[in-house]
Design brief:
Length: 251
Amino acid sequence: MANISDNNGLKNLIAQYGTDGAKASLKKSANKDGVKDPAAAGAHDVKDPKKDPTKGLADKNVFLKLYIQQLKNQDPTAPQDTNDMVAQMSQFSSLEKLSGISDQLKNMTTALTSNQALGASSLVGKSLLMPGNKLSVSDAQHSIDLKTDIPKDSTSAELKIFDANNKLVRTQKLTENDVKWDRKDDQGKELPPGEYHFAASSVNEKGQVAAMPIQLPARIQGVTINGKDGTMLNVENHGKIKLTNKLEILG
């Protein structure tokens, strides 16, 4: 807390906020010193509370000095109510605690933002599963993770993979939603890198065939942190995607 020792500043505070008795005493003292306006006596020495980091009357020490001065000049037949002082002191204590909490929250926000930035930046270069049916396979990819959604009434399901010439190169039976393609054709030969198309379907007890949705890996090319929509991932062929815990990111 600030140490207010300037007599002129204290006189100005009394002139503005003091009791009638304190103001009268201040005026009497000022007249002896040849000062016409008691408030003006210290006005130039009191800083604007908006600019002064001590915050003027929000300073508990200032309040105590002002209150003590008022007690010295109070009417003995009508003393001041000490409950007012207790209430004011409680308000100052609450203000100090709230200010401390505010600073702590700011520090926590800064730390969380930094952690989020580090975590999000580590995602660059990884892949996440996104809806689609077309994928460009590189020579470095020896297997492809993909996902589908097999209906509960399905009796059988399969995945068909076509090359860039729309030639069927692989038919794979599905028993679960998570699928791994080893980049081989039906003869067990490893296929060359290039563009491939995927189609998944299921058959129910009535023999009805239904297409199933497919999620394919898409590369995360960049991250935007603390934008107006939060943290955004720049995903290849999909643009900006909001980072949520619902996204399935591949290691």
